[in-house]
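Quick illustration, no need to memorize.
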Amino acid sequence: MLEPIAAGFAHALEPASLLAIVAGLIGGIVVGVMPGLTATLGLALLLPFTFWMNAETGLLAMGAVLSGGVFGGSITAILVKIPGTPASLATTFDGYPMARKGQAGRALSAAAVASVTGGVFSAIALMFGAPLLSLVALKFGPPEVFSLAIMGMSIIISLSAKTLLKGVIVGVIGLVLGAVGQDPMIGFPRFTFGDISLYGGVSLIPVLVGLYSIPEVMAIIERQNARLGVQPIVGSLFTGFRDCLKYNVTVIRSSILGVAMGILPAAGPEIAALLGYQEARRTSRNRERFGEGEVEGVIASECGNNAATGGDLIPTLTLGIPGSAAMPLFLAALLVHGLRPGPALFEGPQSGVVYTLIAGFLITQIIMLPLGLGAARLGMHLLRIPMGLLGPMILMLAVLGSYAIDNDIGSVWLMLASGLAGYLLQKAGFPLAPIVLGLILGPLAEANLHRALAMNYGSPAIFVTRPLSLALLIMAAVSYFVPLFLERRWNAAQAKQEASP
């Protein structure tokens, strides 16, 4: 096994391969930084060009775009509270409060180092355990994916502990939005009001961009002739190494969760980041500081979403099952070059291409560290732009990004409507993240609920008779009720301390 890996590194370290990796990383970071232009869109733009490249170079460039795109979204998530990609949503929870405290450099450094660490972890898992780990994906059927989605929804409780009722209300709004479109089993349109453009459901990206960009633009208008509202920048871009070493348990746990979520079909980096953040908050001694600028939250999110990128490749290469929305593009690139996914892909003459991709994916993570820190340093200049210029820039990028998703002006109107609703909800004290969580997890839960019930002739017993599904439901129950119990206990202790003389 070591011989093909060594040959893969030899190919990946060739000048043409390194050039493809660097160019792909730069392009991916640029795409990730721009709201709405996801890593998936970056891969779609790159795919036609790979037809004229050899298989190794094309796949290396695509892997670099994927990694760079997922990391790039964290830069705007931290600096201006606008997730460049859905995978960066959890990074806004603590990254932006850190930036407002003047710790933008520390937050960006932690995001870069955590991203690279999670990516390296997933590359090693891909290199040495792909065939074995792919068997895990086969253990997850509809009952297990439904239970996983239910567990993921418990994040709403964690994010809304101080305003639980408001968090649940907006979470339900997200679930309702996720129900718009065709029924996943019979294809009957629901809540479309006769509008054909809604038959495919409410698109996540315009809603995400609108919810996080328009309220920020409105806040900029309200502050008028000031700057972004952050304190003077302190700290260094190299503090991320120290923070990741300090929270090494969080790094390891989030990386494992990221790989696991990447392996599961339809999970991907968005859910990996959210679960990593939730577990970090649940187990942290400083959990009351989460949401107010805790660097551990940034580390957990960025480790999780980047570890999922390598995890996504495991079922894609070994089983031909896309691990996330970006993976069908990888499958297309493989098939165009005459490579058929499956266990045989790791054997025979075609194994050289696969091991070059895997070795190159590890090299990509290492190269991403200096490039990511450099992009973070450039990004910090956003904090010095006068608001009169920054507001129109954000609005322009939001409109362009929303339109680019489907080349449809309807997506722009959806983004603007979501933004206006988000602004009003934020003014009323409602958290916005549960809406996005409901929109992500609702369709996943509904589709797999239907499939699981169909598997067992309509009986819900299948969710508790399958051990893995039952274990996930128990974990979901713990995730729902333990934070509430701990929050109540902490509030009681605080009240007792304040009452004592």
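Residues 2-492 form one domain.
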